[in-house]
Amino acid sequence: xxxxxxxxxxxxxxxxxxxxxxxxxxxxxxxxxxxxxxxxxxxxxxxxxxxxxxxxxxxxxxxxxxxxxxxxxxxxxxxxxxxxxxxxxxxxxxxxxxxxxxxxxxxxxxxxxxxxxxxxxxxxxxxxxxxxxxxxxxxxxxxxxxxxxxxxxxxxxxxxxxxxxxxxxxxxxxxxxxxxxxxxxxxxxxxxxxxxxxxxxxxxxxxxxxxxxxxxxxxxxxxxxxxxxxxxxxxxxxxxxxxxxxxxxxxxxxxxxxxxxxxxxxxxxxxxxxxxxxxxxxxxxxxxxxxxxxxxxxxxxxxxxxxxxxxxxxxxxxxxxxxxxxxxxxxxxxxxxxxxxxxxxxxxxxxxxxxxxxxxxxxxxxxxxxxxxxxxxxxxxxxxxxxxxxxxxxxxxx
Length: 398
Hints:
Elements: E1 5-7, E2 18-20, E3 26-28, H1 39-45, E4 47-52, E5 60-62, E6 65-67, H2 69-80, E7 84-89, H3 93-101, E8 107-113, H4 114-117, E9 126-134, E10 140-147, H5 151-160, H6 164-177, E11 182-183, H7 202-212, H8 216-227, E12 234-235, H9 247-253, H10 263-280, H11 287-300, H12 302-314, H13 322-329, H14 335-338, H15 350-368, H16 387-394
Parallel strand pairs: 4-7, 4-8
Antiparallel strand pairs: 1-4, 2-3, 5-6, 8-10, 9-10, 11-12
Helix pairs in contact: 2-6, 7-8, 7-10, 8-15, 10-11, 11-12, 11-15, 12-13
């Protein structure tokens, strides 16, 4: 896929704005009112704006962490000049180049075909720089772009980028998504099957499942999927403890970082979070179905789940039934899905979330001693590009 990252040299004016603080002082916005927002201005302001398209090669949110090769590369460049990075997603390349020309960002950094820029800017307006992909003839066919007026930023990008960097960040991303995802000890899924003891934390699940209004065995099944009952587990993204709670979520739930690996505070906070998610999906009438949506949101994010529900509605499925939504969630892996007009939060690694729900449901069935079956109803084989044709081809009924 063609990746597009826009580090935009802000040609438009960023005006000074005076504001009165609550204590009566008049303060002026630190952004200069000059017509060109230069590299020095970016460094002084402490933030660089990246325009990009959603996608697996450009940018996506994964468990609260930005990923995508172009984003990771842009993040490293921002770190090299000592600033933070803000991502602005665009619907398409036309919007991206328009926003670049309007000065709404600092660098346009996708592996962007140069011809695209001519629709909104002349060659004299743009500076092609930084990361590049050769066209096989020794020429750079796709590059990042800044406005020509920001020559200092373009020169810095050219000096900074080395050809091996793109392969390096892709390798780093693959490592994060595989073996480095969670560091934990693996305990048995049953401590004592004959007596029905699942883990040494059963008393905590029994106690705090009431807050979530769940069967305690479902919390236990989720805990095993998250950490294999290891209270010291932590993921590369920063999730910690039995229920793999992210630091930002812990703060939101009132869980102190010094307590995040402690079993009871961690489980109690997770129960509060489950209750919060349950409330946010109260439009799902069936309590049992609602649990599946909550599990998906716990793993993949509530916004992505809502995107999948929107796609399900658009294509005639039942957006209140997980079996349907799981199938359309798989569309969020493909451009036809994550670029759909009803989708607001872009690409997601949907297969992981669908599998997450399946595995917990299978484990929960084992803990209850009932037959095991995949609740998603075969979501994985779903062909997402043409959903209406897929119904006939794959012979399933939505």
